[in-house]
Amino acid sequence: MTVTSVKEQPPLRPKSNAAQARDITILGIESSCDETAASILRRRADGTLDLRSSIVSSQDKEHAPFGGVVPEIAARAHMLKLEHIVDKAVTESGLGYNDIDAVAATAGPGLIGGVIAGLMAAKGLAMSLDKPLIAVNHLEGHALSPRLSEDCPFPYLLLLISGGHSQLLAVTGLGQYTRLGSTVDDAAGEAFDKTAKVMALGFPGGPNVERWAQAGNPESISLPRPFQGKPHADFSFAGLKTAVARAWEASDQSGKAKADISASFQRAVADVLTDRTLRAMDMFRATHGHGPHRFVVAGGVAANTELRARLDQLCIGQNFKLFAPPLKFCGDNAAMIALVGAEKLMLGQIDDMDIAARPRWPLDQSAAAQNPKSGYGKKGPKS
Ligand code: KG4
Ligand code: ZN
């Protein structure tokens, strides 16, 4: 079935204390994990966007010897790189520092050292330019990321899958999130990274598993599909990760084994994510009516080609229109942070200079209150 029309909501309108409808220019800064990023984004008075620059400097080389992100190394690398990356973003934009109307930076959730480094840089710049500071939730950046490349009005169902988080949310407006499901243990990206680590495929894990999977048989290894068919929309990846480790130990550890296990693992993750999304689609329909509706997949794992194809098929059958950001906006970037900054500035949502960095900052505050363990970090589920 093809979706022909999707009910649209009017674009965000500024409130009385908000920026009046005029072009605004935002400097965005991102430093919550292992990418140091800065971007200049113009939001025109009519709500359309002009992305002037988006610089992303990966720390892959720094972390590769350890097979994962080392928080202390990440924080130090951000501190060393930030000034240069921001300068590059401003230069490439063709604009000057004086054209910036506000500085938006990720204030959490994430690795606290890195978040502090980015937020401090943003505070310094905002003060010296005498412009407002906007503290952005990194997850909200991912949630709005499809809007960097196409019009995607609220409301929509969101599958947010990254290295630190896995959740399904109903997104009804800026700052308005209802959690429908989340992981009870590991994040989807974490499962990819750990699978890669077990077989020494290299860091970061996701793209390497995907590459090996292309040469493998996805039916060759029997792996579990945690929570498949359950009435809730939660996920679990810990059992899958353990099953991969066992399969690897039992194999001859050849190149063929790497390819077959990668392909079988990727198929299992795609099965689980599409099954859980199907359940969340039912929940979304129960609140928002029959549809057609919009479905957004965002976060680093959304770059996975097999998963995108499977979600595309699911959406066609379920009367949802799929919005999947281009690969450059799936992983961490500062354009998505600048975008949230622009929308917040339009609503007059600016922050005080004493705002603190937050290692945990759930999008859905009410679900977080019911489950205080939820959030980002090494302790508790990566939901
Ligand atoms: O959103 P992101 O860049 O950072 C976080 O906010 O966590 O996501 C990074 C995660 C990593 O776990 C990485 O292995 C995974 O996204 N990833 C992928 C692919 N590209 C990146 N997972 C599966 N397939 C990919 N092609
Ligand atoms: Zn992210």
Fill in the keyword field for this structure.
binds 5'-O-[(R)-(carboxyoxy)(hydroxy)phosphoryl]adenosine, globular, disordered N terminus, 2 domains, five-stranded mixed beta sheet
Verbal overview:
By secondary structure, the chain is an alpha/beta fold. It is globular, with a radius of gyration of 20 Å. The chain starts with 23 loop residues before the first strand and ends in a 13-residue tail after the last helix. It is 40% helix and 18% strand. The chain is built from 12 helices and 10 strands. The longest helix has 34 residues, at 255-288. Helix 5 (188-198) packs parallel to helix 7 (238-250). Mean pLDDT is 91; it is low at 1-17 and 374-383. The site of 5'-O-[(R)-(carboxyoxy)(hydroxy)phosphoryl]adenosine has 19 residues, from helix 5 and helix 6.
- Helix % is 40-55%
What is the CA–CA distance across the termini?
32 Å
CATH class of the largest domain: Alpha Beta
Tell me the β content. Answer: 15-25%
Query: What is the name of the CATH architecture of the largest domain?
Result: 2-Layer Sandwich
Summarize the helices and strands and which ones pair or pack:
Elements: E1 24-30, E2 35-43, E3 49-58, H1 60-63, H2 71-93, E4 102-108, H3 112-129, E5 133-137, H4 138-144, E6 156-161, E7 166-173, E8 176-182, H5 188-198, H6 205-213, H7 238-250, H8 255-288, E9 293-298, H9 305-318, E10 320-323, H10 327-330, H11 335-346, H12 365-370
Helix pairs in contact: 2-3, 4-11, 5-6, 5-7, 5-8, 6-8, 7-8, 8-9
The protein binds 5'-O-[(R)-(carboxyoxy)(hydroxy)phosphoryl]adenosine (KG4) and zinc ion (ZN).
